[in-house]
Design brief:
- 72% of the residues lie in helices and 0% in strands.
- It has 128 residues and is mainly α.
- The protein has a domain of 80 residues.
- The longest helix is centred in the middle third of the chain and has 48 residues.
- The protein is rod-shaped and about 90 Å long.
- The two termini are 19 Å apart.
């Protein structure tokens, strides 16, 4: 049997454990047939599937955006590392080389955050 309110698959009980609806009252007041209840369940499954694909799509967009940002940060760091003075090896060149490494670290953190947030979105989409 299915709950006519939320569409959950339930045993032959009087109250839905998912949404706490009084099933006997709903069925008696609406005179719902088993086919109507199955139709409600079908619509609920379709809705859940749309929500899952929405979360997966959003996770993909988040991941792509974080990786684009990380790539931009990394390129900026590489450009900073290439800065050279006219007079030869100076303290500024060493500073820029270290600054480029820091930017590479920020890029790695950005990629990691992107993977984390995308994973959270996938989890939210797949949990029931």
């Amino acid at each position: 049997m299915f709950c006519p309110k939320c569409g959950s698959d339930i045993e032959e009980i009087k109250i839905c454990p998912n949404c706490s609806s009084d099933l006997e009252k709903i069925i008696q007041s609406n005179n719902l047939t088993e086919n109507q209840i199955i139709s409600i369940k079908s619509r609920q499954k379709t809705y859940n599937l749309i929500i899952k694909f929405g979360f997966l799509g959003l996770a993909g967009v988040i991941l792509i955006m974080f990786f684009i940002a990380a790539n931009s940060i990394s390129k900026g760091g590489m450009e900073i590392m290439k800065i050279q003075s006219v007079g030869g090896r100076t303290l500024e060149e060493a500073y820029y080389a270290e600054l480029g490494k820091i930017y590479s670290g920020y890029a790695m953190i950005t990629r990691t955050l992107g993977i984390f947030f995308a994973s959270v979105m996938v989890w939210l989409g797949l949990k029931e």
